[in-house]
Amino acid sequence: MDSLTGPIEGADHREVGGASVDIVRVGNGRVKRTVYPPGFRWSINMSPNVDTALCMHAHVGFLARGRIAGAYADGCTFEYAAPQAVAIEPGHDAWVVGDEEAVLIQFDSEEGTARRFGLPAEHAH
Ligand SMILES: [Zn+2]
Questions:
Q1: Residue 122 C-alpha to ligand 1 middle, in angstroms?
Q2: Does residue 4 lie in a domain region?
Q3: 45 C-alpha to ligand 1 centroid (Å)
Q4: What is the Å distance from ligand 1's center to 13 Cα?
Q5: Paired residues of 95 in beta bridges
Q6: How far apart, in Å, are the Cα atoms of 123 and each of 16, 102, 120?
Q7: CATH code of the domain covering residue 77
Q8: Global pTM?
Q9: What's the domain range around 78?
């Protein structure tokens, strides 16, 4: 078994838009592992499940496998390749690069993630 993607004891497991999401509550926050398949794109696969065109969550964590890239509404872009720490501000699209799945391990507090980690409420300059 692959310890990076195998079942997590005690996790709340969900399949959302083709991504596999496992969430474990820790104190007043959450540890979250998401496995994104090759070809995954937030604006195509996730946007239909929410009512925003861009992802309005902050993402703080560690990309343990694969490559991801993304863009903010103003055209700024980002790209991460594992192993790499990740900090993405609210207000972005993002997608998997290449033919390998991406495994992102995040620390969040749901709607309060940006505030907790000192990120802006939405990407800006
Ligand atoms: Zn920008």
A1: 10
A2: no
A3: 23
A4: 33
A5: 41, 69
A6: 24, 23, 6
A7: 2.60.120.10
A8: 0.92
A9: 12-112
